[in-house]
């Protein structure tokens, strides 16, 4: 049976980089027997312009009917001043919520060719390969009650609620254990259990799950220490699992350890393995239309899509090796310091990866 993949190019550089993913998937289909059908739909600013909503109903229906979706990026200055509900980013939040994508997986992998892009010294980061598993649909970003109110003394205050149910902790915990099992077998759960009750429960649930994963070694770390350790000695980590807010901050921090925003893929998964895959970077309006965006984060997102939603781990590795190969051959888009290697644009980089397959 053929896998269905929904392509969501989005805005600005989105369509440019998704075009390279399209080439890659078609090559995998014609040369390596991948059974895949590609559909296209609007998400983000393009949805607002063409169909009046950042997440058109037709897009959501197609997403529900697909095994996975690949997103370029959404947003741009032209949609900054429209009403809140029509902002492109709303479309992204809405599709994540509608599909129940609760687990956000963000690898931070430093290619040996790019050690000098990192803000840390090579002896601290070379060989860096960590994965952050972030809870995406709960915690303080969604907890009720929330709001801005006026106190009895007339002073305004803003408030949010950090709440996690055992069910929510268990399912993200399992995603963390499963990921660690597929990798180096080490899982670090990050919380603030010395201060927060929600973290106390978080830690208790993680400990409870540990018995089911005897092949994974579980450790715990307070989030403040985790931030420090990520910058001091990031290679001590294999997989980190954490809540929505802590994960938001730590995953951006980990991403920057690699120094290459154009290289970082991500996955957001539901319980069944359906997922939305996208580069970590945004729509880069400052460079769109020039054909110079780095497509590798998107091509590495295709590798994650193959691994997690289509169960095609071998093809995923093949894509990752092809990306490593073009870097080793010296090909560089402008963001990777195009000048030093062989400077290439978006399409040439995509073609090179396809050739390296
Ligand atoms: P968002 O709010 O959507 O995350 P942002 O403003 O944080 O967007 P990006 O759109 O990721 O940021 O862009 C940040 C910088 O990185 C910009 O200068 C952009 O040109 C550059 N950049 C982002 N993605 C790429 C890419 N694929 N290739 C080259 N440069 C990129
Ligand atoms: Mg950003």
From TrEMBL:
Substrate binds at residues 96, 106, 134, 224. It catalyses: (2R,3S)-3-isopropylmalate + NAD(+) = 4-methyl-2-oxopentanoate + CO2 + NADH. It is found in: Cytoplasm. It comes from Spiribacter pallidus. Mg(2+) binds at residues 224, 248, 252. Pathway: Amino-acid biosynthesis; L-leucine biosynthesis; L-leucine from 3-methyl-2-oxobutanoate: step 3/4. SUPFAM superfamilies: Isocitrate/Isopropylmalate dehydrogenase-like. Belongs to the isocitrate and isopropylmalate dehydrogenases family. LeuB type 1 subfamily. Catalyzes the oxidation of 3-carboxy-2-hydroxy-4-methylpentanoate (3-isopropylmalate) to 3-carboxy-4-methyl-2-oxopentanoate. The product decarboxylates to 4-methyl-2 oxopentanoate. Residues 4-353 form the Isopropylmalate dehydrogenase-like domain. Its EC number is 1.1.1.85. Its cofactor is Mg(2+); Mn(2+). Pfam families: Iso_dh (PF00180). Keywords: Amino-acid biosynthesis, Branched-chain amino acid biosynthesis, Cytoplasm, Leucine biosynthesis, Magnesium, Manganese, Metal-binding, NAD, Oxidoreductase. Transmembrane segments: none annotated. One of its GO terms (molecular function) is 3-isopropylmalate dehydrogenase activity. SMART domains: Iso_dh. The record marks 141, 192 as: Important for catalysis. It comes from the Bacteria. Homodimer. Binds 1 Mg(2+) or Mn(2+) ion per subunit. This is 3-isopropylmalate dehydrogenase. PROSITE patterns: IDH_IMDH (PS00470). NAD(+) binds at residues 76-89, 282-294. Gene3D superfamilies: Isopropylmalate Dehydrogenase.
